[in-house]
Amino acid sequence: MANEVILLDFWPSPFGMRVRIALAEKGVKYEYRDEDLRNKSPLLLQMNPIHKKIPVLIHNGRPVCESLVAVQYVDEAWNDKSPLLPSDPYQRAQARFWADFVDKKIYDIGKKTWATKGEELEAAKKEFIDALKLLEVELGNKPYFGGETIGYVDVVLIPFYCWFYAYETCGNFSIEPECPVLIAWAKRCMQKESISESLPDQQKVYEFVLMMRKNLGIE
Amino acid sequence: MAEEEVKVFRSWSSAFGLRVIWALKLKGVEFDTVYEDLSNKSPLLLQYNPVHKKVPVLLHNGKPICESLVILEYVDETWKQFPLLPQDPHERAKARFWAKFGDDKVLQSIVFGILFKEGKEQEEEIPRAMEILQHLEEELKGKKFFGGEKIGLVDLALGWLAYYLGIIEEVIGLKLIGQEKFPLLLQWIQEFSTAPIIQENWPPRDKLIAKFAASREAVLARGLK
Question: Where is the GST N-terminal domain positioned along the sequence (chain A) (predicted)?
Fold first, then answer.
């Protein structure tokens, strides 16, 4: 049976990285297509007409949009190996709760660490560290949020790690002294090929952020 | 079968809490309700939802689950009768997409973009809201409910629209959707709001109107500072 998988993505997108990691964890062969977001492909506009955003996972011609939806889809469509969500409904609910927390907090607040200044920046840095500390408590002394192996929350959160250098450099703060457990977790994740191969180099992300700041007229 | 303790912490007016009780009642699950006064949250609520300190919270055999859409999936996985999500992974993905669309776009536009705004700002949001609602109209083509023949996850996620939209229209003195452009959405509103279980659980209309009017006033007053 033909199993055609295409991922429409944009290399620095943490949301796209989530789907890359999920597909890698499942050993799925797919075609990666990098979009120029200033000149979106007809395929992207056709497959995600409502939001016109990446990532879009196209499986046998059918699109799945929204990164959390796509990661869950990958977990369900390729359920023969490496389960990302646990089987117990309560554990699943906890995983979904924390994935939702990451979505509500990390991206928007993280963006403020490179896109704002003065009081707004100071408030954002505090909020960001507070959010990471809550995640540290949830992690506890497990190697991964998923327990002994990578799970849903690990996949959802780890992409932001390659953005930390940009956040820290632009925002002039350091995450590791405040959140050593989380950074240890991130480094542990980066030992896994499915993750290290899916994340771009943090220096490249930083250069991308500098370009975005310039375009937005910051500093 | 072991005795189960199911409790829902919610407020009388919250649409998010309604999602949870609809799901439980549709599945025939017995539960107790704990009404919260959101201006004076109980220690129990703060204990069960320390991260967000919000309602609704589902407590099942002493274990709390928070965030209404997370709760809906938990309820669907725990009590298998009257399934809210289809079996096929792609259909499930579509349902999750629309549930998220409802919260990210529909709710944002209608409540934060229109109800809580006035004048030019409100005026400018209206065509955006119409575009967003048009997507729902198209999604309803050939279907009685968003879930198909029966109520599903998306109907419960968007269900607030079937009652609260009319209330918001009354508070702002503007009709947002009409028969000409939104015949299917209006039909869904009728079908959903009068469906068994759903029909019996709407909060009192006049109380909601008063509450939404007061909230609107409070938000607008804050903005003028």
Answer: 3-82
Provide the CATH topology of domain B89-224: Glutathione S-transferase Yfyf (Class Pi); Chain A, domain 2 (1.20.1050)
Between residues 100 and 119 of chain A, which touch chain B (CB distance below 8 Å)?
A: 100-101
Please report which confidence band the pLDDT of residue B2 belongs to, taking 50, 70 and 90 as the band edges: very low
Encode pLDDT of A42-56 as tens digits: 999 999 999 999 999
- Condensed to tens digits (0 to 9), the pLDDT of residues A52-93 reads 999 999 999 999 999 999 999 999 999 999 999 999 999 999
Structural tokens at position B104: 């990210």
Is the CB of B70 less than 8 angstroms away from the CB of A134? no
Q: Which two tokens stand for residue B140?
A: 């309803």
Residue among A60, A75, A90 with most chain B CBs within 10 A, to mutate? A90
- Which residues of A are less than 8 Å from B5 in CB distance? none
Average pLDDT, chain B: 96
Q: Cα distance from B130 to chain A (closest Cα, Å)?
A: 13
Domain with CATH 3.40.30.10 in chain B: 6-78
Instruction: Confirm or reject CATH 3.30.70.20 for domain B6-78, answering yes or no.
Output: no
The verdict on A26 touching B (C-beta cutoff 8 Å) is no
Helix (H, G, I), strand (E, B) or coil at A5: strand
Q: Within an 8 Å CB–CB cutoff, is residue A73 touching chain B?
A: yes
Instruction: Dump pLDDT digits (tens) for B36-88.
Output: 999 999 999 999 999 999 999 999 999 999 999 999 999 999 999 999 999 99
Report how far residue B49's alpha carbon sits from residue A98's, in angstroms, rounded to the nearest whole number: 12
Q: What is the ipTM of this complex?
A: 0.96
**CB atoms inside a 10 Å sphere around CB B114:** 23
Q: Please tell me what DSSP assigns to residue B174.
A: -
The answer to whether B107 and B148 are in contact (CB under 8 A) is no
- DSSP code of residue A200: P
